[in-house]
């Protein structure tokens, strides 16, 4: 553990020097190298929290399996993604922890910046902040009006660097925006260090890379249905693909890349294959490879929601050797 911590500190120091030399582009390059090509969302359900010692053990298992990055998320209430990140960082040796996403309705922008800065100071090179606009019911839970998603996110990002008492630590960290639609992606490229779209086909990953340019971080969330039984996996993947297609934002995504959406019909095999990694580990790695080839810096494997935590960790462990070959 001591040797791992020393190595992590030395690597972080090198990354800090790189970031200082090259500004934000240098920081993006350093984080890109630290994340590795494929990471995972820690499979914590929104319907029930596993005990924190179980979460710590799960994060340790994922690190031992070879993953270099794990991501966590939040809605409003129930759990705090920044608190969870701090506990997972403390429980692991070199694992990078990212938020995918920290919800803007869960805390003020200055508080989020201060918390992220403190994590970056405590764990140099090991924390990435993904921030997202959430949903109207989450704004309501916080006693706020949802308003225009684009204007709200722009205002939130602008206010993150506002003055605080005491001042936030002068520790730099990467800030990316959870964004799927073209307008939010454009804002992410303009006002942050990159974007985190999820549930999109590789063609849209290519579009997003072109929109962001080469110096922004592009993290793509990819839903996965691991199952050695190909037909059973495809059935589960088709259900997930249908749910993704039903999102209001998907019409804009499809229009941007000229993708035909099936309407009331079930998505065909080609569309299912593009939207959901499914099957055995090699098949899932192949889908991740398509996103990387299209311009993603990092692909995040997302299991179907609602599963049991330790079973989810075990499923991700089984995928690790195949996706590690993408490094």
Give a summary of the structure in a few sentences:
The protein has 327 residues and is an alpha/beta fold. Helix content is 52%, strand content 14%. It contains 13 helices and ten strands.
Describe this structure in words.
The protein has 327 residues and is of the alpha/beta class. The chain has one domain: TIM Barrel. Helix content is 52%, strand content 14%. It is built from 13 helices and ten strands. It has helices at residues 2-35, 52-65, 81-91, 109-122, 136-141, 149-159, 182-191, 202-212, 230-245, 250-257, 269-275, 281-293, 309-324; strands at 38-41, 69-72, 96-99, 102-103, 127-132, 174-177, 194-195, 217-226, 276-279, 298-303. Strands 1, 2, 3, 4, 5, 6, 7, 8, 9 and 10 form a ten-stranded parallel sheet that branches. The protein is globular and about 55 Å long. Residues 1-21 have low confidence and may be disordered.
Brief descriptors of the model:
327 residues; alpha/beta; TIM Barrel; 10-stranded parallel β-sheet; 13 helices
């Amino acid at each position: 553990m001591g040797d791992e911590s020393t190595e992590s500190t030395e690597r972080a120091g090198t990354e800090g020097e790189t970031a200082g030399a090259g500004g934000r582009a240098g920081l993006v390059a350093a984080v890109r190298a630290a994340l590795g090509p494929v990471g995972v969302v820690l499979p914590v359900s929104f319907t029930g929290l596993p005990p924190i010692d179980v979460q710590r053990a799960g994060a340790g298992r994922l690190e031992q399996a070879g993953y270099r990055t794990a991501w966590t998320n939040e809605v409003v209430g129930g759990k705090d993604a920044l608190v969870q990140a701090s506990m997972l960082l403390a429980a692991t040796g070199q694992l990078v922890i990212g938020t995918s996403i920290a919800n803007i309705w869960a805390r003020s922008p200055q508080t989020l910046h201060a918390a992220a800065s403190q994590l970056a100071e405590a764990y140099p090179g090991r924390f990435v902040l993904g921030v997202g606009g959430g949903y109207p019911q989450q704004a309501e839970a916080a006693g706020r009006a949802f308003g225009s998603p684009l204007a709200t996110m722009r205002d939130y990002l602008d206010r993150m660097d506002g003055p605080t008492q005491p001042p936030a630590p002068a520790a730099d960290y990467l800030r990316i925006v959870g964004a799927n639609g073209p307008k939010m992606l454009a804002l992410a490229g303009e006002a942050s260090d990159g974007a985190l779209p999820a549930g999109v086909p590789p063609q849209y990953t290519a579009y997003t890379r072109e929109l962001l340019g080469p110096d922004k971080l592009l993290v793509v969330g990819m839903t996965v249905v691991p199952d050695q039984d190909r037909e059973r996996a495809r059935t589960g993947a088709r259900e997930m693909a249908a749910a993704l297609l039903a999102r209001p934002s998907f019409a804009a995504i499809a229009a941007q890349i000229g993708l035909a959406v099936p309407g009331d019909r079930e998505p065909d095999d080609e569309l299912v294959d593009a939207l959901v990694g499914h099957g055995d580990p090699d098949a899932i790695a192949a889908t991740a490879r398509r996103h990387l080839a299209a311009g993603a810096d990092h692909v995040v494997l997302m299991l179907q929601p609602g599963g049991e935590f330790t079973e989810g960790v075990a499923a991700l462990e089984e995928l690790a050797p195949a996706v590690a070959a993408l490094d």
